[in-house]
Amino acid sequence: MNGDFSFLTDLGFSINEAKVYLSLVENGTMNGYEIAKASGVSRSLVYGVIERLSSKGYVLPIKGDSSFYEALPWSDLIRGLKREGEGRLRRAEEALSRFSGSGSNRDFAYNLVGYGRFLEKARELINGAKREISLSIWPEELETLRDELSSAMSRGVKVYAFSFGRLSLPGAVIHSYALKDADSLFPYRRDSFVADGEASLIGEYRGDDTISIYSRNHVFVSVVTDEIVLNTICYHFLKAKGSLGEVDDVSSFLRVHEAMRRELHISTDIGKNLMVYDFQTGKRERDGD
Fold this sequence. Notes:
This protein is α+β, with helices and mostly antiparallel strands. 49% of the residues lie in helices and 18% in strands. The protein has 12 helices and 10 strands.
């Protein structure tokens, strides 16, 4: 028997095992002499090959006459190999998961230079998420990552997104001020990602000079999560007060936040992050409380 047996050797068969198994699949029940003749495996070797295949369950002796053999039906062979492979993968996954938590690299934060590297890592984070993704994101990055986010939701991942700009992502939970001129609020766009509460990415768009930070460190992940959560809480606080009814641009947004600062008696020093534009551009108002 001549031919390409790689489709079986790739599954762990030796060349002789593949020849014997295929001979039985093709010809049906045979004895050792007939198997040797049909497969081309010498009689001195064929019984050892039959014994190995029998021990694996791939070749079965005929009941009542152990000198005759038949092949395990190929469909049963494939199903069995699939179960074995899945079992090995599960065992490997469980073992590796126990090791992964002890690796010291979880404690490090990594700088990524360049906007392309930032997007590459964002896609990796989204594609690897299993349960949920939390975002603080700008419309530009949402559009770039729309396909990955939609794909994540299609496999059951929940997506929560906060933004100062106008967002549209069917299936996601959106918390958005929807400012029509949101780009003028900051001198940059900062995007934050948290996947499954285990990995985080944060970066500011500055073209080729974009530098982002990726980490699985618990403290860092918590800080990035807090930023998203606190922005969302502030949004819902103002929404519940009915203060966002006329907010549609940066000017009205800043007026509402200044009114909140005064109402809550937050000093400009403590509350400067509420007045996001003045703080981020280095200006500091000294209005009274």
